[in-house]
Amino acid sequence: MCLFISSIQRALFYGSQNKNITIVHAQSFLLNDTYPSNWRRKVTKSVTARGINVVLDDYVDDLEIKDGKINTRSGKPIVADLVVSFFITVRKNNPKLEL
C-alpha cells in the first residue's frame, strides 16, 4: 500500500506538469476535519498552486468513463482517461486505506 500511495504522490506532485489532474473531494478543503482548518486550507492552496484542479464539496458516484469524461454528483463534467478512487478512514488513530 505504501508503494501505491508513493506512486500517487509522485504523479500528483511531480508529474502534474504533463498531466491534467483533478481531485474531487467531498468536503470544503482537502483532507478531513481531523486536521485543523488552517492546515487544510494551506494544503488545498499548495495543491492548486501546482496546477492540480480541485473540485470541493462534490462527489463522483459513477467511476465509469463515458465519452472521455465522468460527471460529479452535482453534474460537473470532468475529462478523464483514468479514474483512481481512494479514501482513508481513521479510527482510534489507526489509518486504513481503502481503494
Structure write-up:
The protein is an alpha+beta fold and about 100 residues long. It has one domain (about 1-99): FAD/NAD(P)-binding domain (3-Layer(bba) Sandwich). It contains 2 helices and 6 strands; from the N terminus they run αβαβββββ. The chain has helices at about 1-15, 35-50, and strands spanning about 20-25, 55, 70, 75-80, 85-90, 95-99. A two-stranded parallel ribbon has the order 1-2. Strand 1, helix 2 (about 35-50) and strand 2 form a beta-alpha-beta unit. The longest helix has 13 residues, at about 35-50. The protein starts with a helix and ends with a strand. About 5% of the residues are buried. Residues about 1-5 have low confidence and may be disordered.
Biggest β-sheet description:
2 strands, parallel
The CATH fourth-level homologous superfamily: FAD/NAD(P)-binding domain
Domain module count: 1
Q: Give start-end ranges of low-pLDDT stretches.
A: 1-5
Strand line-up in the sheet with most strands? 1-2
Count of alpha/pi helices: 2
Report the mean per-residue pLDDT as an integer. 79
* Approximate shape: globular
The CATH class assignment is Alpha Beta
CATH fold call: FAD/NAD(P)-binding domain
